[in-house]
Design brief:
35% of the residues lie in helices and 30% in strands. It contains 7 helices and 10 strands. It has a 5-stranded mixed barrel, surrounded by 5 helices. A hairpin with a 2-residue loop joins strand 3 and strand 4. Helix 2 runs parallel beside helix 5. The longest helix is centred in the N-terminal third of the chain and has 13 residues. The protein is globular, with a radius of gyration of 16 Å.
Amino acid sequence: MKIGIVIADEFEFEPFSLFARAKGAVEDLFHGRKRVAYTENGKTIQAVQCGIGKTNAAAATAFLIADGAEVILNAGLSGAIHGLRRGDIVAGESFRECDFDLTAIGRAPGEKPEEPPYFVADKKLLALALSLPGVKKAALGTGDLFLADKEKSALFRSTFGIASFDMETAAIASVCYFSGIPFGSLRQISDDADDAAQNDYRQMNDQKKADLTELLSAWIEKL
């Protein structure tokens, strides 16, 4: 099995890179992005630091699939929208792009012509993620913005029914959907997507905590 892992920024990527290098992985470049790759128990794992945002995440996902990835996983930090607290870890059950807007020509918010209104996680991957300690499921929203606005958070919640917000998952899910590749995501809540979000996010991100790496490695073992 070939597993591709998409991780956005250096602080999220470094704990997994350290973990992989302890297993003999070598860090190199993959289409200009940092990558660590190793093989264990018949699985080849490649993790790429894709860079922040939808375009970066989609590109890295497409490159991994073109390189033979049969499963795509994602891990990173997210802002809480509803029902979640800082430190919670969620497995995405659905992924919705919240900043796509064709309302001026009569489309619903987030609607893309001839595409699903949202994408869903692979059922097997989601079930395995939910078997990990402390992980709960949530509807995830995505957009190319750092969400630090209570009013916009409330609007996204009422419009899309999301519980957390990030900058990558729906883009990754879209590429996987059209490629027929199973996708799953684990996200840790770093902030409340409000006026204090920048400081809260930086505080957690700068710690380079290994919580997600530990769960991600346990998730891989279950595949």
